[in-house]
Design goal:
The complex is a heterodimer. Chain A is mainly α. Helix content of chain A is 77%, strand content 0%. The N and C termini of chain A lie far apart (61 Å).
């Protein structure tokens, strides 16, 4: 608990600057990761849509056997 | 003119005005608290407080936005207001330890309110830009109001109560987020980026334009700005320009508005160093691209409008970053930088935005 409070007390300016910079870096990396996840999801949905159209509207031809 | 009338009466435009007020109240409390904290002799704090605020209010919005995209019933705007009210109370009564813990809470609240505004205005607009433009326009009015109020003896509680007056709007606006609907379907009419340009390029280019505009905002040649009234006029013009950009884009086309405003702003800004009216025209034009860059990001991330909006605010931080470390001392150098950056923005926007004829078919 004390360490968390110390973190927020920002005893030295330099420590605060480092912490903020690291936080910014983490958020930017997370944004990129989430974007990749979102785009992959979109591509999967599109592929599934194309596949279902190719199968004459049936979602998966293997399941019709 | 008919196009402009249609834009002014767009369906669900009330969401833009509701979040205009929420955004206004948000910036009032944020700048009121920050400016109060900056009444200090410690020069390091005078540098660090704006840096921390810019970093922690702007950058997390993409991550908060993505979380909000995944949980549509989560009322980000309302949560943000509650957090900022708590931060204000903490500044007033000293609830949280240290100076920066309350600033961190204030930043989180600010970020969540912005995410809420983006989610509601983008999901309810049917591909129009006016809604988000009106929402973002409210911020500039709040920045100058909060800054001016901080110089008075107004107590914290008055500003906190003013912020809480935005709660009913945050509750009402949530309905227009259409939590049960498919996000991609709601944002399907955002088709402003050219299809053949890869998604990362669109995001990077729109971020570049936002960053350039953010940087330019700090190195504008405004020798005429000598009084408080002048400062107020500057921020009011910025806010009005942001809102007007959305309406004009809806009425006359995104590409036309983006290119005319990006190229038209430069001569007014350069020639208006000592002439207020000329300078204000330039500032209004240069603020108009705000909602366009957001719409470009949403065009390639239709399923995640919160994340898309967050990229714009991350770019705002990256654009302001140089001013914390570099000081430009000559007007000539400043003008050269402004001109080069404007040309880069113009070229980038010309490359990635679709032709207006195609867009107009989608709209009216």
């Amino acid at each position: 608990m004390n360490s968390i409070i110390d973190l927020f007390l920002w005893i030295k300016v330099r420590d605060g600057f480092t912490l903020v910079t690291a936080t910014v870096a983490v958020f930017i990396i997370l944004s990129i990761v989430f974007t990749v996840i979102e785009l992959r999801k979109y591509r999967r949905e599109q592929d599934a849509q194309i596949a279902s159209t190719d199968n004459g509207g049936m979602p998966d031809s293997d399941n019709t056997d | 003119m008919a196009g402009l009338k249609n834009a002014l009466k767009s369906k669900n435009i009330a969401t833009g005005w509701m979040y205009f007020y929420i955004h206004f109240a948000t910036e009032v409390i944020c700048f009121f608290c920050l400016k109060k904290q900056m009444v200090t002799d410690d020069s390091a704090l005078l540098w660090l407080i704006p840096f921390v605020y810019d970093a922690l209010a702007f950058v997390p919005q993409s991550v908060f936005g993505y979380i909000s995209d995944r949980f549509p019933k989560f009322n980000a705007g309302l949560t943000g207001i509650i957090l900022m009210a708590f931060a204000g109370l903490s500044f007033w009564l000293g609830i949280l330890p240290g100076r920066f813990s309350a600033i961190v809470v204030l930043c989180a609240g600010n970020a969540l309110t912005h995410v809420g505004g983006a989610e509601v205005t983008l999901r309810s607009s049917g591909g129009h830009l006016a809604h988000s433009a009106v929402f973002v326009g409210g911020g500039s009015f709040g920045v100058i109001t909060g800054t001016l109020l901080a110089a008075t003896s107004l107590p914290y509680i008055a500003v906190i109560l003013f912020l809480l007056s935005a709660v009913p709007f945050a509750v009402c606006a949530q309905k227009y987020r259409y939590p049960g609907a498919d996000t991609r379907e709601l944002c399907k009419d955002f088709n402003y980026a050219k299809k053949n340009i890869p998604v990362p390029v669109v995001i990077l280019v729109s971020m570049l334009v936002v960053a350039v505009r953010a940087y330019m905002g700090y190195c504008l040649p405004v020798a005429w700005k000598t009084t408080t009234l002048h400062s107020a006029l500057l921020f009011i013009t910025m806010g009005a320009g942001k809102a007007a950009g959305g309406f004009l884009a809806d009425a006359y086309g995104v590409k036309k508005t983006a290119l005319v405003s990006a190229a038209g702003a430069l001569p007014f800004i350069l020639l208006g160093n000592r002439i207020m009216v000329v300078s204000l025209i330039g500032i209004m034009l240069f603020s108009m691209t705000m909602s366009i860059t957001v719409a470009l990001n949403v065009s390639v991330l239709k399923g995640a409008p919160g994340l898309a909006f967050g990229y714009s605010t991350t770019a705002l931080f990256l654009g302001t970053l140089p001013i914390f470390f570099i000081t430009i001392k000559t007007d000539l150098l400043s003008n050269i930088i402004l001109s080069v950056f404007t040309f880069i923005s113009f070229a980038a926007l010309a490359i990635i935005i679709r032709k207006d004829e195609k867009i107009s078919e989608l709209h009216y």
